[in-house]
UniProtKB/TrEMBL annotation:
Domain of life, source organism: Eukaryota
CDD domains with a match to the protein in the record: HP_PGM_like (cd07067)
Site (Transition state stabilizer): 159
Catalytic activity as recorded in UniProt: (2R)-2-phosphoglycerate = (2R)-3-phosphoglycerate; (2R)-3-phospho-glyceroyl phosphate = (2R)-2,3-bisphosphoglycerate + H(+)
UniProt keyword annotations, A-Z: Glycolysis, Isomerase
Record protein name field: Phosphoglycerate mutase
Residues binding substrate: 10-17, 62, 160-161
Family the entry assigns: Belongs to the phosphoglycerate mutase family. BPG-dependent PGAM subfamily.
Keyword Isomerase (UniProt): yes
This enzyme's EC code(s): 5.4.2.11, 5.4.2.4
SMART domains for the chain: PGAM
GO biological process: one example: glycolytic process
Length: 226
């Protein structure tokens, strides 16, 4: 029997997603379409009458704005929000070449006040999905999971790869299976969990089937040649 509900949402389309570019830690804005996706997801949550006690997001504005939209539309702006770099986006399964200190984006990230508390070795210069999971899961285990077990109603607004890490953990998915999983932008994902935080039924997308299908097709097409 399900005793807990967890809601997760991948941020709406970003300006870089729109250009078929992978963002990583680059702080891209939501595109106009992404802002509409966030509103659509927020409306789905409102229609489902889902309330939250605490929310988690990354320190990147595309996820934060998506969360703000949800809390605004559902009239829950007062709910506490925890922001952490551990839920940030990163790269795919194969790490890209390491980014050295001369790279254009290295200084913009390493000198960013959001990451002032990170040790040099914690600041990723390249990162795989496996690495992303390795930094996200301790936060899940130490911060989010205890809140859910304590009965808190949790919303996580984050990124494709950090959310895939949580899904992989919840469902015990293989490395290959999680690489093939496409989480649509702006579509809320609902899990019903038992006391051990194991799903009692498959993940459920909030929204009509056609909207969900199109969103999944769109994200699957990202990264492919136009």
């Amino acid at each position: 029997m399900a005793t807990h509900r967890l809601v997760m949402v991948r941020h709406g389309e970003s300006s870089w997603n729109q250009e078929n570019r992978f963002c990583g830690w680059f702080d891209a804005e939501l595109s106009e379409k992404g802002a509409e996706e966030a509103k659509r997801g927020a409306t789905a949550i409102k229609d489902a009458k889902i309330e939250f006690d605490i929310c988690y997001t990354s320190v990147l504005k595309r996820a934060i704005r998506t969360l703000w939209t949800i809390l605004d539309v559902t009239d829950q702006m007062w709910v506490p929000v925890v922001r952490t770099w551990r839920l940030n986006e990163r790269s795919f399964d194969t790490p890209p070449p390491p980014m050295d200190e001369k790279h254009n984006y290295y200084a913009s990230i390493s000198k960013d006040r959001r990451y002032a508390g990170l040790k040099p070795e914690e600041l990723p210069t390249c990162e795989s999905l496996k690495d992303t999971i390795a930094r996200a899961l301790p936060f899940w285990n130490e911060e989010i999971a205890p809140k859910i077990k304590a009965g808190k109603r949790v919303l996580i607004a984050a990124h494709g790869n950090s959310l895939r890490g949580i899904v992989k953990h919840l469902e015990g998915m293989s490395d290959q299976a999680i690489m093939e999983l496409n989480l649509p932008t702006g579509i809320p994902i609902v899990y019903e969990l038992n006391q051990e935080l194991k799903p009692t039924k498959p993940m459920r997308f909030l929204g009509d089937e056609e909207t969900v299908r199109k969103a999944m097709e769109a994200v699957a097409a990202q990264g492919k040649a136009k």
